What does this fold into?
Amino acid sequence: MDNKAILGKDLLDKSILILIPGRKSASTVESILKGWGFTTVHVVHSMIEAMNRLQSYPVEIVASELEIGNSDAFQLFRIMHDNHDFDHVGTIVFSTNTTESIVANAVEKNIDAVISRPFTEQTVVECFAEVIKKRFQPSPYVASVEKAKALILNKNYGEASVILEEAVTRYEKPALACFLLGEIAIHKEQLSRAEEYFKKGLDYKPRNLKCLIGMVFCLRSAGKLEDAYEYTKTLIKIYPTNQKRLKFAISFSSDNNLLKDLYFFLEITTLVENPEKSLSVVITRESLRHFNEMYKEDKKKANNMINIMRLHSKDDLNSRIKLMELLLENDLILQANKELSYCRKNNADTDRFRFLEAGLLYELKQYVDCVRAAQVLNERSSGFPEINLILSKAYLALGDLEKAKQYSDIAIREIPFSFEAKMLFEDINKKMK
It folds into this structure.
């Protein structure tokens, strides 16, 4: 492919800024572009250098490595997006990680293209050529939409609406024009009208990201949560890793006992890079709420839920203690033992943890350690009368009937309605006759 002929001199002269920390890699990309006739290519190696260049010189295409020191390309493009002086600038990301979440993130943030490593010379040139043509030789439809965008930015909604309504009638599948008309309706606080435009856009393109997001906004604002949830499900299937949408979907499916949906959303959270703490809290809370139901319905899925909870609550000791309790309640002793090891390693020392530790050690038949842990708790807290039942059972297993009876007497006195305490009391008394 001869890009010199296809693009023409005016497009080959577009000013390109390359931000790649690695000097060798940056030099490779620069050489490829210059070798194909691009005349204005500038290379920088840090976010600060890039921002200085953007503020000092005209730039028309920015291509950045995804990871930039302690930051990333998304942050750079977010800064540019917030400054409307850069609305005309094309954006490209280089990434060795082309997971679904990275690509979806790029689409949602209006990034023009993602180039995955390792790349070929042809791939780089074709991508730059496509972005430059899209930005600087737009179709009549794209040109009219861009004109309307500028008018919306200046709050000239009337003139923008005229251009967009004409675009809807003249061009094929004008989903973006419908979205912008919906956006204008939202600015005018006409939610039902906005909803109509977004629906119309989805009739043209059922997977259009912006119209789907618009529908969710309108429906949630109108309190139509069930409808909003259905559109959110569609969004998550196409663009899976938006954390705000996942929080809403997980909470809604949990509140309405939609276990299949809940499990689907929980699985998707494993794709999320750097989840927010609030998302991790929602995941752990709702997983804990429904684990018992899931375990009755599908043990394999329930076991996978355990791994998802571990993944997202790894820095929250209280969540791991709650998970340990849940596993113990369901007789998942080996899984609970993993949580015990984690909690010990991280110096867990709450009374609740010590109570669960003693109960788990009994189930693991580590009776001496069980007695030791239970006595430590008994000495410092009176809030767990059931600990005497555990002590009685442990001493009975160790063959110490006197101690077993001592703690059984306390248990039957402190938890008189416990069937287990009553049966143990009777069993010990029979053995001592």
User: Anything to note?
Assistant: The mean pLDDT is 90. The radius of gyration is 31 Å.
